[in-house]
Design goal:
The protein is of the alpha/beta class and 213 residues long. It has a single domain, classed as SGNH hydrolase (Rossmann fold). The protein is 42% helix and 11% strand. It is built from ten helices and five strands. The protein has a five-stranded parallel sheet. The longest helix has 18 residues. The protein is globular, with a radius of gyration of 16 Å. The N and C termini lie far apart (40 Å).
């Protein structure tokens, strides 16, 4: 929080941006702004070890104070690893969404599904349940969407893809982030006039490279 406050004192992000919040998967996305460079303002407010409960607790400090037009949250994986239930993940997200929607009624809210990390394979049943619960809830909200990155991170026969992860088999490598960018870009409104044919072709190539075997 102190690091975010210091960054804001140096240069406060402009309003109406696209804000990513969540755990170390977001924090470690080093090329986040470059990967969505067509968007004028991209804000990274990921912090290591965070849970959906943390994102809910700090929603005003990490999200609404920046007045973004689109909020994307990746959290819940650490909640399950710490022993919380899928229902508790849903409750934390629902309250997070209420806070964001209460202060930013026109903001789009996107929930990025919990990923299938090989090091946490034992939690896959809870991951599937939490994703299903949050996905169903998101469909009841207006101006909100559920971004499924769980399915693309499995092979066509449903097996884990360790090649998308670092040695710890928890955090993603560059190939994992290429896949995420190709999926998430479809859910972010980008000014069409700023996207060149070369960039469109490059995006298609990245998506083809990242498609599950």
């Amino acid at each position: 929080m102190a690091a975010f406050a210091a960054a804001d004192r140096e240069k406060l992000p402009l309003a109406d941006g696209v804000l990513f919040v969540g755990s170390s998967t977001i924090r470690m996305w080093r090329n986040l702004a470059q990967d969505f460079r067509q968007v004028p303002v991209v804000i990274n407010r990921g912090f290591g070890g965070s849970t959906m409960a943390d994102c809910d607790h700090f929603a005003r400090d990490l999200v609404t104070r920046y007045r973004p037009k689109h909020v994307l949250v990746y959290a819940g994986e650490n909640d399950l690893a710490e022993g919380r239930t899928p229902q508790q993940v849903l409750a934390s997200f629902a309250n997070f969404a209420r806070v964001v929607r209460g202060e930013l009624p026109n903001a789009q809210i996107s929930y990025i599904s919990i990923k299938p990390s090989p090091s946490r394979a034992a939690f896959l049943p809870q991951v599937r349940e939490a994703n299903a619960l949050v996905g169903a809830y998101v469909r009841t909200l207006g101006n909100a969407d559920y971004i499924d990155i769980f399915t693309p991170m499995l092979t066509t026969d449903g097996k884990l893809r360790p090649e998308l992860f670092l040695a710890d088999q928890l955090h993603m490598n560059d190939a994992g982030y290429v896949l995420w960018q190709s999926v998430i870009a479809r859910h972010i409104a980008m000014p069409a006039a700023t996207i060149s044919p070369i960039e469109v072709a490059a995006g298609m190539q990245r998506a083809q490279f990242s498609s599950p075997r």
